Amino acid sequence: MIEPTKLDGVLRVKPITYFEDFRGRYIESYNYDIYKSQGLKIEFVQDDFSRSHKGVLRGIHGDSDTWKLVSCIYGSFYLIVVNNDPKSSQYKQWISFTLSDRECHQILIPPKFGNGHLVISDEAIFHYKQSTYYDRGNQFTIKFDDPEYDFWWPNVNVITSERDKSALVT
Q1: What is the C-alpha separation between 29 and 73, in angstroms, rounded?
Q2: Residue 105 bears catalytic tag
Q3: Domain count, the chain
Q4: Number of H helices, E strands in the chain
Q5: 48 belongs to a structural domain
Q6: Domain membership flag for residue 42
Q7: Percent of the chain whose pLDDT exceeds 70
Q8: Residue 170 lies in a domain
């Protein structure tokens, strides 16, 4: 159910229950007791969704306190997770994933890591659980095309916010 990745603390989580038949699909996406038994003892306090169309890039944002459990509940997107902890030996290293509603995998993102995603299907819904309440004033932003990181995105003609275009805080 839980797989480590090349970045310490970033984990890929496969669905607890996944059942598909002629009626459709049933997925249990979160169960505190089961996650706790697997070593994930994080208490989440807020759930958020963002719905975007193809080419929209959101992020890269994070903060020093929040754990995030992200998934794609409709469509597909390309996700980048980057270590933004200057005390870490993996500082500024990043990893990417393609998440979709077909696999229903989740990515656990620790505090001091940023994440951003690019919608690669016609439309996608990004879901994330947070261990703290949203506080934009406490967030850092890394510019999605910062040459220092050499991020690779599957589309160079992205649609993004002014905040993400002009990010200066790294």
Answers
A1: 10
A2: no
A3: 1
A4: 2, 13
A5: yes
A6: yes
A7: 97
A8: no
Q: Of 35, 78, 128, 149, which is the active-site residue?
A: 128
Place of tokens 């990893």: 95
Q: What is the DSSP-derived secondary structure letter of residue 156? A: S
| Mean pLDDT across 142-170 | 82
What are the tens digits of pLDDT across the range 63-110? 999 999 999 999 999 999 999 999 999 999 999 999 999 989 999 999
CA 14 to CA 29: how far, in whole Å? Answer: 9
Show the CA angle centred on residue 116, arms to residues 112 and 117, nearest 5°: 150
- Catalytic residue from among 61, 78, 117, 149: 61
- In the residue annotation, 61 being an active-site residue is answered as yes
State the CATH number of the domain containing residue 77: 2.60.120.10
Q: Which run of H or E residues covers position 125?
A: strand 123-130
DSSP-derived secondary structure for 23-67:
TEEEEE---HHHHHHTT--PPP-EEEEEEEETTBEEEEEE-SS--
